Amino acid sequence: MTPPVALGIDLGGTNCRGGLVDGDGHLRLRAEMSTDASNNFLPRFESFCYQLINQAGAADLAVSHIGVGVPGVVDGHGRVLNAPNLPALHGVELAHLLRERFGLPVQVGNDVDAITAGEARCGAGRHSADFLVIALGTGVGGGLLLQRRVWRGPVASTVEIGHVIVEPDGRLCGCGHRGCLEAYASGPGLVHSVELAGLRGEIGCLSLSAGITGPMVASAAQHGDVVARVAFAEAGRHLGTVIAGVINLLGLKTVIFAGSGATNLDLLRPTLEHTCRDALFPGTPLPELVAAELGADAGIIGAALGAFGDDGFL
Length: 314
Ligand SMILES: [Zn+2]
What we know:
By secondary structure, the protein is of the alpha/beta class. It is 37% helix and 21% strand. Zinc ion binds next to loops.
């Protein structure tokens, strides 16, 4: 008899990634669909799950559990309290709904918590008892592993590291506050930096482009564009300040960068390390700054492995 696999789902604001994962964390099959939240999302999501479960049957694999990582706040019963990038999920009792639909045990949690669990089990954090995860992409998310457990606040809170204020009265953030880390270090934050440089007359290769995206800024910076590199340097400075604050508070030795922005760690590293070193309590070593080893699959693997357990992602 083939060993059971769990269906792991990493729900993003743009894409939904899913896969079948065995108990050792090996991804046996993966699929992806566009999230397109405005268009009948829940029925499309259910049929996406159905497809993967059917494919498992065709491959002689038995799905025994379902785990889902959601970009937002989820309570202990798998109800989505808040998902700014996926409004169709607001208030949805997702764990209950999937349990009813598929008759399988279901775990639903925050997406960066799933990445944190995945990296802890079989990624860059497998040898660490404690580490911080920073997920860089459309937003800036956080996850904390403390004493081999994914940390959660008492009220289903997530590690909102992107909304630590780095510039009092600074840029307006999507959360309504001013000066949050996310307003500088997310993809849209980097775009904003390039646009502001243009208004100051600092001309780079993207200055006359319309519809600039975070990946375009990254590509320009990798090709040596000075304006784009300055945007990354600024993001690195703010990340360094926040990371030093977390290290001063918790004494962690490792920071794992996840999300699409993790591939640009080299662009952030010089100013990040410099600022972090300056802000650390004297004598505290600079933490190890590494990219997530499971890459884009960390959320799928973490959600699936978490589903095998019965007390959350780890
Ligand atoms: Zn904010």
